[in-house]
Design goal:
Distance between the termini of chain B: 53 Å
Largest sheet of chain B: 2 strands, antiparallel
Strand content of chain A: 15-25%
Radius of gyration of chain A: 18 Å
Radius of gyration of chain B: 19 Å
Shape of chain A: globular
Structural class of chain B: mainly alpha
Structural class of chain A: alpha/beta
CATH class of chain B: Mainly Alpha
Number of domains of chain B: 1
Helix content of chain A: 25-40%
Shape of chain B: globular
Order of helices and strands of chain B: HHHHEEEHHHHEHHH
Oligomer: heterodimer
CATH topology of chain A: Rossmann fold
Largest sheet of chain A: 6 strands, mixed
Strand order of the largest sheet of chain A: 6-7-8-3-9-10
Bound molecules: adenosine-5'-triphosphate, magnesium ion
Helix content of chain B: over 70%
Number of helices of chain A: 11
Strand order of the largest sheet of chain B: 1-4
Chain lengths: 255, 296
């Protein structure tokens, strides 16, 4: 173990960022007009990890992921991806750097086919042969998508759309995958399936930053996790530590 | 009966022109939710460029058309970059007012540069044969115009639905942020949309001049507003909608002109606006539009 993260406050944690972090967020402040949505958060993700960010409605989880992906510009602070500051990099270039996102609410392109949605995920890959191979690989992993390849994406069920959203993001061969509430609106069975998919993606070498309201799911998957409350990171630790933390149990695990 | 057929053909011709202009409105609206009120004036600029290319530079008509399309496309992109892009996150009303300002600017600039006195577009159709239908005749150029417009629309359809960049346009128009997350450069797609829309308007201008060979700074206003109505009729933001709406409006207008007694000829334009009012009342999302999604 490089070091053992203890439950500690965010400031202390940011002082312990390992050199090897693939993603490092430093004192990030984001506003929507006058609304101060992120109030100086710091965290990091190491290569190969699954890191979860849990928190209730309006905590700032989506804001965090959108800022990392370049859809929002931070007022203060820094985002380092593989050592490079990416605050000012436009979002389409961030994807090309190997950082993909499965956005909240799936955000399918409903008017085009399932297969075209996958192809949009590979928009930046000009190697047609490889793209075709990747599509086949996704069909192998998500057989239900294969059956529905010609259907408009808008006709898929919620669960199928979530699979497609993940598959679409994987089409770009990301090194770091951001997932925003992939279990939202899904049955327990489908949530389990999504968990397995995330584990498989991670085991194949993609680093994962997972945002969830479903704390038990997110914490049981996570190597490490952070709790977010109204724009601040308040608790952090390993997934199992947080699963047993009385504060987390009380607030997020229905204890 | 032959009267009806010739009027129908005329309707198709003017409808093809409306459809080409409507495509520009609808594509731009689809992507950035802006009604580009300067779009009709881009058609007017396209007409001037074609005029100078033909009469001053002595280019053949197909080259003049190409020059006009490229020139107008560049102007469309530049207008977006300078006037609309800074307002991307502003209210829709600010952008709309800016579009009206751009429209006035283009009209007045052309007035200063070229004066308000109309110029006559050189006749390029003089040696073309006419086709007789019953006891009336239709110039072949009418059929050529319709065929060219339809061909262009088919190419556009193929481009949008079959190519990677075309699909990216659809993706951006459905969900700009999700498209950015796919690595799509939205600025490029918006510029491309303006370029295509403007080039189609220039092409429409040339088809228009074949039948109404007068060029003046306000010539874009009427076809512009009618094409806008065509876009709304078909469902604004929907590409096939603009095509259907354009042809339909052309035919309605042509029939109104043909069958409303000449004593009331002033009201034929009103028929077109009546169509707009009816659409807004009965199916605001347009013929091919889906009812507005209700956000839960
Ligand atoms: N576009 C916006 N304009 C203004 N305020 C916003 C906007 N988006 C989010 N906010 C505010 O920022 C705060 C954080 O929102 P965010 O969407 O990041 O929360 P979240 O943790 O993702 O919540 P949820 O779990 O409900 O998705 C909230 O107070 C929200 O109201
Ligand atoms: Mg959220």
């Amino acid at each position: 173990m490089f070091f053992k993260a203890k439950q500690s406050d965010a400031a202390a944690l940011s002082a312990m960022v390992p050199d090897s972090a693939i993603l490092e967020v430093k004192d990030l402040s984001v506003y929507y007009g006058a609304i101060h949505a992120l109030k100086g958060i710091s965290f990091y993700v190491r290569p190969g990890e699954i890191v979860s960010l849990i928190g209730s409605n309006g905590a700032g989880k989506t804001t965090t992921l959108q800022t990392i992906s370049g859809l929002l510009t931070p007022r203060e602070g820094e985002i380092l991806y593989r050592g490079k500051v990416i605050n000012k990099v436009p979002s389409h270039k961030i994807l090309q750097m190997g950082l993909a996102q499965v956005p909240e609410g799936r955000r399918m392109f409903t008017q085009i086919s399932v297969e075209d949605n996958l192809l949009m995920g590979a928009y930046c890959n000009h190697n047609k042969r490889q793209v075709d191979e990747d599509v086949q690989r996704m069909y192998a992993q998500f057989p239900r998508l294969k059956d529905r390849r010609a259907q408009k994406a808008g006709t898929l069920s919620g669960g199928e759309q979530q699979m497609l959203a993940i598959a679409r993001a994987l089409m770009s061969h990301p090194q770091l995958l951001l997932l925003d509430e992939p279990s939202m609106g899904l049955s327990p069975v489908l949530t389990k399936e999504i968990m397995h998919i995330i584990q498989r993606v991670a085991s194949e070498g993609t680093t994962v930053l997972l945002v969830e309201q479903n704390a038990s799911m997110a914490l049981s998957l996570a190597d490490r996790a952070y709790v977010m409350e109204t724009g601040r990171l308040t608790i952090s630790g390993s997934g199992s530590e947080l699963l047993h933390d009385p504060r987390v149990i009380k607030a997020y695990l229905g204890g | 009966m032959t009267y009806f057929i010739t009027q129908f053909i005329n309707g198709l011709q003017i409808g093809a022109i409306y459809a080409l202009i409507a495509l520009g409105y609808t594509m731009v609206y689809g992507i950035i939710k802006l009604i580009n009120f300067a779009h009709g004036d881009l058609m007017m600029v396209g007409a001037y460029i074609a005029f100078f290319a033909l009469s001053d530079w002595g280019l053949p008509i197909y080259l003049a058309a190409a020059v006009s399309m490229v020139g107008t496309a560049i102007l469309g992109v530049v207008i977006d970059r300078i006037a609309y892009k800074p307002l991307r996150d502003a209210s829709r009303l600010s952008a709309l007012i800016t579009a009206i300002a751009v429209s006035l600017l283009l009209q007045n600039a052309c007035m200063l540069l070229f004066s308000s006195s109309p110029r006559r577009f050189p006749t390029v159709t003089a040696n073309l044969p006419t086709i007789s239908i019953g006891n009336s005749t239709v110039n072949v150029i009418v059929f050529i115009s319709i065929a060219l417009a339809v061909a262009l629309m088919m190419i556009l359809n193929l481009f949008v639905n079959k190519t990677r960049i075309g699909k990216a346009m659809l993706a951006v128009s459905e969900d700009m942020r999700a498209a950015q997350l796919m690595g799509i450069n939205v600025d490029f797609i918006v510029s491309l949309t303006f370029a295509i829309g403007s080039a189609l308007a220039a092409f429409a201008a040339i088809l228009y001049l074949f039948s109404y060979p007068q060029i003046e700074p306000y010539m874009g206003a009427m076809p512009g507003i009618k094409a806008f109505i065509a876009a709304v009729l078909g469902g604004i933001g929907i590409i096939p909608g603009a095509m259907v709406g354009g042809f339909l409006l052309g035919i309605i207008e042509s029939m109104a002109k043909a069958y409303i007694p000449s004593a009331f000829s002033q009201i034929t334009d009103a028929v077109v606006f009546l169509v707009l009012i009816l659409v807004l009342l009965i199916k605001p999302s347009g013929l091919m539009g889906k009812p507005e999604k209700v956000k839960v």
